[in-house]
Write a structure and sequence with these properties.
Aspartate Aminotransferase, domain 2; alpha/beta; four-stranded antiparallel beta sheet; seven-stranded mixed beta sheet; 2 domains; globular; Aspartate Aminotransferase, domain 1; single chain
Length: 419
């Protein structure tokens, strides 16, 4: 069943205006279910953890519900979900704990296709502990990861492989299950940055087999909140840096300070919204053994399939629009036969105009896009455009429409005429 886009868009208060939001890779708009849950929390259950009174007990119950929902969203167990400020903060926090297991002579694999939040924590860890960084390149001609180079790096038997699920700059989807299997074969831990992939496709950490995976809820229609999945046995065994006295059971031992309870409540509302998409619009794909066809995980899988189908049409429309402009260069995959290897995120440059000027002109037309490097610093350096203003980035999600892409195209044609 196709998405009822009018009904979908009605769930997003920000979409009632005239703006076209194609800045989604930098953060999506917030769904009403999320806002309602946050307001309800702050009015009715606003209290700190483990108190001997009603609002504290109810607050703890909301957090538990959200942890269970997040576990279903990632295909994990509830004690494998760690909440934090954002993916970057959680990754630095985890890196500090992992550093106790890494030392001179050890190697860590990072890629030039990743957001810096999945690079700098590991660079600094290696610097502090005397470990060696092994860089994996990507193919500049199509934005795909150099898998042969990655597998050569695995011959060094690294302690950790850090890789992105999807590139926040070029939209490329990496074969993370295959990478994980090969990394595990040489004894490496695998950390996956799923921030950019989360709004576009299903995440199942058990199917991937990874050891750690992180994402941020504000990239998939929710609040500013980070999620970290860690295998229960690893979280149990790792040392955590936090204040005394504290709960040293998992996952609480990695949640430093008082959590952002209202954001956690908002996450619950966000996942409930995604679940509702699967309930109303999703079809019944084959389910792995053990998943209840009537349960939340099944609905989230149906939602993901429906979202992917809609976004595929948006991606094709964006590509057609961009390719119609003379002097415009797209960075990343453009082969329509390989669109299952990318999400609806495109980066480009237009001959004769800087990315910032282009973004400003789009802004004048009420179309919101990003320019620069989006913290994918190694991408723009590798493409030799870091000192040239980077790229313009447009990214569609499921609340976008073909009419949005049409307006984008008209604006782009006007901008082209200014060159």
């Amino acid at each position: 069943m196709t998405l009822n886009i009018e009904r979908i868009r009605h769930q997003f208060p920000a979409l009632t205006g005239e703006a076209v939001f194609l800045d989604n890779p930098g953060g999506t708009q917030t769904v009403k279910n999320c806002l309602d849950r946050m307001i309800e929390y702050l009015i009715e259950t606003n209290a700190n953890h483990a108190g001997a009174f009603k609002t504290s007990r109810e607050s703890d119950a909301v957090v538990l519900q959200a942890r269970e929902a997040a576990a279903d969203f990632l295909g994990a167990q509830k004690n494998e979900i760690v909440f934090g400020a954002n993916m970057t903060t959680l990754t630095f926090h985890l890196a500090r704990s992992l550093a106790r297991r890494i030392g001179p002579g050890d190697t860590i694999v990072v890629t030039r296709l990743d957001h810096d939040a999945n690079v700098s924590p590991w660079l600094l860890l290696a610097q502090d502990r005397g470990a060696e960084i092994l860089w994996v390149d990507f193919h500049p001609e199509d934005g795909t990861l150099d898998l042969a180079g990655l597998y050569r790096a695995l011959e060094r038997k690294p302690k950790l492989v850090a890789v992105g699920y999807a590139s926040n700059a070029l939209g490329t989807i990496n074969p993370v299950a295959e990478i994980t299997a090969r990394a595990h074969a040489v004894g490496a831990w695998v950390f996956i940055d799923a921030v950019h992939y989360a709004p576009h496709g299903l995440i199942d950490v058990k199917e991937i087999g990874c050891d750690f995976l992180a994402c941020s809820a504000y990239k998939f229609f929710g609040p500013h909140l980070g999620l970290l999945y860690g295998r229960a046995d690893l979280l149990e065994d790792l040392f955590a840096y936090k204040v005394r006295p504290s709960d040293n059971g998992i996952p609480n031992k990695f949640e430093t300070g008082t959590p952002n309870f209202e954001a956690i409540a908002g996450l619950l509302g966000t996942i409930e919204y995604l679940e509702s998409i699967g309930a109303h619009f999703g079809e019944n794909p084959g389910l792995p053994e053990g998943i209840d066809p009537a349960g939340r995980q099944a609905k989230l899988r149906r939602a993901s399939a429906a979202i992917k189908t809609h976004e595929h049409s948006l991606a094709l429309a964006l590509l057609d629009t961009l390719q119609s402009i003379p002097g415009l260069r797209i960075y990343g995959l453009t082969d329509r036969a390989r669109f299952d290897e990318r999400v609806a995120t495109f980066a480009f440059r237009l001959e004769g105009m800087t990315p910032r000027r282009i973004a400003e002109e789009f802004g004048r037309d009420g179309i919101y896009v990003w320019d620069g490097n989006y913290y994918a610093l190694e991408v723009t350096k590798r493409l030799d455009i870091e000192d040239k203003g980077g790229m313009v980035r447009v990214g569609a999600v499921h609340y976008n429409t073909l009419a949005d892409i049409e307006r984008f195209g008209k604006s782009l044609s006007r901008i082209k005429s200014l060159v």
